[in-house]
UniProtKB/TrEMBL annotation:
GO cellular component terms, semicolon-separated: mitochondrion
Family per record: Belongs to the thioredoxin family.
Protein's UniProt keywords contain Metal-binding: no
Pfam families per the UniProt record, alphabetical: Thioredoxin
Source organism of this protein record: Gavia stellata
Protein name: Thioredoxin, mitochondrial
Keywords, ordered alphabetically: Disulfide bond, Electron transport, Redox-active center, Transport
Signal peptide bounds: none
TM helices/strands, residue ranges: none
InterPro entries: Thioredoxin (IPR005746), Thioredoxin-like_sf (IPR036249), Thioredoxin_CS (IPR017937), Thioredoxin_domain (IPR013766)
């Protein structure tokens, strides 16, 4: 079995249980931020709304929220994207966006933070968060 690299990579290690049907759309709407300029290009300058998941490998609640958030983002069929930011790899971004605990999720539109939450939410709460961001 081959490990993918590039824009599809984030889905493989995080969601092995969702292989097969419908993964490609979900993979395309979720990506790992590589560095500050990548964040600028794919999040701040993105015409679409972006949900930014600040997480860490050592964070238990992040492991629960991440896949749950990916699932509800994938359901939006490309109306919203999800950027994953590991705070240990991107401390500068965590500081810039005042992330003091993980998981912290920001909703960004046209480069501005329009909403945020800290901690775990259930799927219904996440869907409401996304609908508000999309304006649905």
């Amino acid at each position: 079995q081959q490990i993918l690299s590039g824009p599809l990579a984030p889905c493989a290690p995080l969601a092995p249980h969702i292989r097969g049907f419908g993964t490609s759309a979900g993979c395309r709407s979720t990506f790992n931020v590589q560095d500050g300029s990548d964040f600028q290009d794919r999040v701040v300058n993105n015409p679409k709304p972006v949900v930014v998941d600040f997480h860490a490998q050592w964070c238990g609640p992040c492991k629960i929220l991440g896949p749950r958030l990916e699932k509800v983002v994938a359901k939006q069929e490309g109306k919203v994207l999800m950027a994953k930011v590991d705070i240990d790899d991107h401390t500068d971004l965590a500081i810039e966006y005042e992330v003091s605990a993980v998981p912290t999720v920001l909703a960004m539109k046209n480069g501005d933070v329009v909403d945020k939450f800290v901690g775990i939410k259930d799927e219904d709460q996440l869907e409401a968060f996304l609908k508000k961001l999309i304006g649905a």
